[in-house]
Amino acid sequence: MVISLLVLLLPLVVLFGVFRWISAGSDVAAVDQEPAVSAARSAGLAAATPVGLAEGWVPVSAVFQRGDGGLTLRLGYLTPAGDSVQLVQSTRPVEPLLTAELGSQARPGGESSLATGVWQTYVEVRGGAERALVRLEPDRTTIVVGGTPEAELRELAAATG
Fold this sequence. Notes:
This protein is α+β, with helices and mostly antiparallel strands. The protein has 4 helices and 7 strands. A hairpin with a 4-residue loop joins strand 5 (about 115-125) and strand 6.
């Protein structure tokens, strides 16, 4: 019986080892966010991109959309710890934007003063799994949201002018 189990399990162990060996070299591919940022700026959104992020931040997505009463740019990042964070900039009306991006359960949880201004902290974001920082300006609303420690959210927010 032990020999039968070994005969069955040995191919699985070999396949698992080969899979691990093949996938060990696969890194996350960085995305060029400039085309989406340029499109947003050409359309009239005062889009800002992060400057001076620490090594290890990887841009992984960039989407610009028109509609729902305004312009919206979404830039996605992987943090040095491997967590996902999204930077959203929009000219949409604030209330529908916050509900769409943070969920209906999100609620303010204080303020954070950063080099780029005062940001409102939101908790209970997207079902309670994430948190967000929001900055309201006359020409746009900026949201930094993710399930990462607040220090990383603050780093991205502070780097976004």
